[in-house]
Amino acid sequence: MLMLVFRLGDNRYAIATPAIVTVLPRVNLQSLPGSSPAVAGVFRYQGQVVPVLDLNQLLRGAASSALLSTRIVLVNQGAPDEPTRLLGLLAEQATETLESHQVEEIAERVDFCQSPYLSEMLVSQQDIIQQLQIYSLLSQQAYDELIAQAATVS
Fold this sequence. Notes:
The protein is mainly β. The chain has 2 helices and 11 strands.
């Protein structure tokens, strides 16, 4: 399995590519007043309103930098038996991919009850990589609320 790797500060994270629809350059986002600081805003992709989460804000508590390597990773957050639910993930330094054979899963399990979107930890030749469980980033209800809010500010 192929994984997209990105860096936030000194830490590396990975998203499994089967969930990735495409990777886009950073675009201007329409803000949603009153939403969580982790919600960077919304944009239109092929006619559909897409909410965007700022992964740096979510994981480190600070907004993503406007780097040339900052990307919007467009993922399908819907489960395989659900309709497509596009979600944008603002990620810094999203410039690398790894094959699963290039990493080892750390055997010890860490309880991420406060952060259910953090999954297995992997070890590469360079360092430790934390996998993201994209299906746990945003509930269906929260997603629907963001889409409804976007409709009122459009």
